[in-house]
Amino acid sequence: MHQALFVSEILSNIFAHVYPFFQLSRYYTESLESPYHTESLHHDHTESLHHDHTESLPVSRTLAALAITCKLFHEPAMDLLWADIRGLLPLLGCVTRLNPIVYRNYKTQYLWSSEDIEPLSEHETRQFLRHATRVRSFHEENSRHFHLLENLSFETCAFPSLVSLSFAVDHPQAYAKFLRLFLSPTLRQCYLSVRHPDFKYFATHFTALEHLHIQLRPFSHSIADDLSLLYNSIRSCKQLATLSCPPLDWATWRHISNLPTLLTVDISEPRRVPRWPSGRDTHNFAPFHNLTGLSFDVDTAAYTIAVIQHSELPSLRDFVIHVQVLPWPEAEKLCCALSQCKADQKLEHINIICNGELDEEPSSSSMTVITQFFCFTQLRTLQLEFPHCCFNLDNNLLLEAMASWPHICSLELSDMETVPTVTFRGLFTALSRCPNLRRLNMSMDVAGIDIDPTTESFQHTTLESLKLTRSRVADAEAVARILFSMLPRVDKVTDQWDPWNTEIHFQKQWDEVNRHLDLLNGREPQRSQSPESEQDTDYCC
Question: What is the largest CA-CA distance in the chain?
């Protein structure tokens, strides 16, 4: 054996190439919800191998073979083999009494029940924990075997080297106590999907966390009282880089605004929540100097507006909000607040999406919300999907918008309410200012054609995806010739139609435009995509 192999660092690096999926940095960059493979080796009187994901079986077999080749190889190979664990079964397979049951059912892929099996004894607990110190990443999605651990001490972490934890059990309230077994001082990334955890206990274990994701399931009024403990737990975190959680109280917002390590915040509001912070004691937020991503999934925009109005976000690059209800006054406030949060030098991606119905219309004095985004000169993608987001949008405003966003790559203005006034001439004049645009979704007035493609030399050679929402077509062939001449990479135009709306004539008209585009491009016309045309056999050329 070469002398270099006796150097543990060299040997570990070699084995890491055998098992390239395990890199320490992965725990800080990959999602906790990504599927982990599961492999285990029970090295007692015999060696056994079981697996969850067949694609990782050859690698695990290689590591298992290395582990039993010689004493020198055993430890580094075993460290890698046990680094990533999905569920309790690999560890339960180390228990002599359970080993035949676990391995037999892994081979048959049978989800066996352990209801009638007695909890582990003190001796069996030591067998269960035999390789616990090697585990770096643990992922658990159900609680069907947790009762076997009733005799373990919940005051001591059983996995002292754990770096990444995903705990999303199916009966969270009953089994939250078992989470204590995994709260290692080395924990850096944690995903919790629990209803009623002991946040008071957890707070002392979150200090070194860098990535925290807490998903609360729908719960009652009484459990909501424990939210203050959740907030205390988050405020105990001093090194957070990413945070995903329910809406925070203002004290917690102030805390995270002072974290120089914080990069992204994702707020998701559980449905049927009894209440969330509604006060305005937010005057002393510190600037989020390094925050690059901010997203909200909420019922209304009021909470989001309050957060943004009292925040400075000089490094923000991505803003996303999915909202259930967005009245027009709130839409105006939201866009205005975003334009004033000092993100104009960095913001590249904006998504504001509401699928709810409109409860009021803008007045004649209402602003055009798109003008609030002219200050974001670095904008790459803009998606506005709510009623009247194109209110008052005309040729001149579209040109001003495109001139303000020289780097724009994707523009989606999905508005099912506003009557479109942008014409072909206005569109192509604006397109001349944004050479990088690849995707466009908006409403247009294409009934009145105001451009002759035979006399125009302009071509936009980058745009490749065009969706014209509820745009009426008067002359399908003329429209097709304009698109063919001036947008050579667009070979099909789609219309956003509502399957619950019986007025599907827009889609049928664009089917006719696409038929002419196919003919101009020398292709066989494609079958219509509108619901009524499903009974048709083909187009008649």
Answer: 88
Report how far residue 253's alpha carbon sits from residue 426's, in angstroms, rounded to the nearest whole number: 44
* pLDDT recorded at residue 9: 79
Which of the two residues, 479 and 232, has the higher pLDDT score? 479
pLDDT tens digit sequence for 55-97: 455 667 777 888 888 888 888 888 888 888 888 888 998 999 9
Q: Which residues share a beta bridge with 49?
A: 41
Report d(CA 379, CA 375) in Å as an integer.
Answer: 9
E strands within 299-407?
318-323, 349-354, 381-385
- Cβ(118)–Cβ(143) below 8 Å: no
Q: Which residues of 108-117 are buried (b: 16+ CB within 10 A; e: fewer)?
A: eeeeeebeee
Contacts 24+ apart (CB under 8 A), 71-80: 72/1, 72/5, 72/6, 72/11, 73/11, 73/15, 74/43, 76/8, 76/11, 76/12, 76/15, 77/15, 78/41, 78/43, 78/131, 78/134, 79/12, 79/134, 80/15, 80/16, 80/18, 80/19, 80/22
Instruction: Give the tokens for residue 318.
Output: 């991505």
Q: Which residues of 269-299 are buried (b: 16+ CB within 10 A; e: fewer)?
A: bbeebeebbeeeebeebeebeebbbbbbbbb
H or E stretch at 233: helix 227-235
Q: Which of 120, 125, 139, 123 is nearest to 53 (CA)?
A: 139
| Sign of the alpha-carbon torsion through 193, 198, 201, 204 | positive
Query: By three-state DSSP, how is residue 154 classified?
Result: coil
Q: Return the closest-CA partner of residue 148 out of 107, 202, 196, 101.
A: 101
* Mean predicted confidence (pLDDT) in 379-403: 93
Per-residue pLDDT reduced to its tens digit, 341-361: 999 999 999 999 997 766 567
Chain-centroid distance of CA 364 in Å reads 38
Cα dihedral 150, 155, 161, 163, rounded to 10, equals: 90
Q: What is the mean pLDDT of the chain?
A: 81
* Integer Cα distance of 322 and 333 in angstroms: 16
CA dist 393 and 258 (Å) reads 40
Quote the tokens at residue 352.
């504001």
Q: Are 519 and 541 in contact (CB under 8 A)?
A: yes
Query: pLDDT (tens digit, 9 = 90+) per residue, 156-215?
Result: 889 999 999 998 876 656 667 788 888 888 899 999 876 556 666 676 677 788 999 988
Please report, for residues 305, 407, 441, the alpha-carbon distance to residue 382 in angstroms, rounded to integers and kept in the order given.
19, 11, 10
